[in-house]
Structures
1.
Amino acid sequence: MIKRCLKIIKDIDPDFKPTVSIILGSGLGQFSEQIKNKNEILYKDLPGFPQTSVRGHSGKLVFGTIKGTQVLVFQGRSHYYEKGDCNSMRAPIETIKSLGCNSLVITNSSGGINSEYKPGDVILIHDHINLTGMSPLVGEIGSAKFIDMSKTYDLQQRKIFIDLARNKGFELREGTYIWFSGPNFETPAEIKMAKLLGANVVGMSTIPEVILGRYYGLKISVLSLITNMAAGVGDEILSHDLTIKMAKKGADSINYLLLGFLSHYQKISSS
């Protein structure tokens, strides 16, 4: 299945050898407009790729060059809550690895738990809490599935993002992401629990891709865009419409950080 995916991509561009892959979260798909020599493939045309059903996730693989770096961009993801499948992003992640990528940058939209945060802030994730307890590696054969998660979020890549923000004059705070399965939003009591556990932001995605990325040996970074304050922290009525609307507020910061990372990437790719 993965060989067929690789053939489809290579038939379009035989010389394409990406070093970085990016998964775009809700409402952040416009980043793909930065790609030069751009090619697009619908997920439905790639064997094993998930069919996205959530607004703001168009379900397209876009690839080309940004800032001198060949990049593979996923416009949207499949979520566990869509079909109850924690393993739905395996084919995309395995394709990343098979193409020779060694870095995976993930973006998502999240709810702010820390009252100091506000919608539009971007949080650099340095750890996570998998509250669901689910893993895409359940049922995997062999001992390779027992992966170490203690240094999941690459320190060198995080430093690049922090330096980029400092140069731009804004603070990029680091925080812990907690994964609830969704699709319903959390209750105020659940958010109080999450805060006690040490979480700073909450969301319904990302962690399955992170676990798979670690399994395939990728360096991982996650940028989380706060689109709303979590239940009980803010007064607004939570909805996916609000998520899409507010994602636009922080899109410029996400774009700046991703573009800057790609321009710096060649300096660290050999280390």
2.
Amino acid sequence: MSIWSKLGLGPREPDPRSSAERDTVRRIVDELDGLPLERARHIASFAFLLSRVARADLHVSDEETRAMERIVVARGGLPEEQAMIVVQMAKTQSLLFGGTDNYSVTKEFARSASREDKLALLECAFAVSAADGGVSTAEDVVLRQMADELGLEHRDFIAVRSRFREHLGVLRPDDGAGR
């Protein structure tokens, strides 16, 4: 054994578990690469926009993350493992580039989505923001802004929002801090 190894600075034996984990992630990424480009873009932008709303109050809770994963599985038709990666990537992108990409991703989604897709996104975004028990005032503002950017009418926004009335922080007497 060399002095470098004794100091923990020598070459390390590969950890078989981390190698297996890397292989699993690589397979999932390869499967995502196998999706048709338009479908992959749709799923990626959908997940990004869900994370946009979740991050509106500067915190994405575990409940919101799980809700995004369930929605990406259900709406995107992805296996759970892929949905987890897509959501994590969307959360990271939103954290790093959200301020500059929020508007452009929403407008791009609006250009390629049907009215039904836009309404479904809004419904899912409300569900994500309500997953941790309430739709904060900050989330509500972003949801309204997103509805506008998607080209939805005010009555569409109100119809979806009314289904989450009991979760709206602005209507709660204990709202105080926006939650």
3.
Amino acid sequence: MELLNKYLLTETWYLNSEIRKNLLNHIDKTKKHNILEIGSFEGLSACGFSDNIMDHSETTLDCVDPFIISGTHDKITTKMVTSYTEKMFTNNINLSKNGNKIKLYKQTSDDFFKTNQKFYDLIYIDGCHEPEFIKNDIDNSFKFIKKNGIIWMDDYGGNTTNDGKIKIHIDNNLKNHENSYIIIHKNYQLAIKKI
């Protein structure tokens, strides 16, 4: 695959992701889009956006990632891993087609949304999988997504929360927004459109 040869990566999740395979069925790449990505890791999904849907001169992508590894890593290992991950992200963005339209916010999504004033056409949520962050990312995305905008959530079918119930947490939080969206994709990932 072309992406494997072009970019530095340790994980290939994005290559088989549903957003990569299906996004162009729901978005017109010739139009201007403000895109927000929550959780960028090595930047492969951001590069996918950059290479495939960001050709319009006014399209932008804001990436939010604190580059903090959560878990029980010792401080030295964590610092080395996060430093390398961020360098990979920067390298990959610089290699991407429209990397000059991408801005990194090195902070948590909670902190980002406290000062954000921009509204988005597409928000891709692939951030922290703890229940509190899932709730906050969904609620904040609804505040800043435009009408007919898409919120696309990764790992909907996964078991990556501490209690193994990410789908239940997403579904429960979406109940707070009933009648304000329609589901446009539902499998391992979930995508909704604001109405």
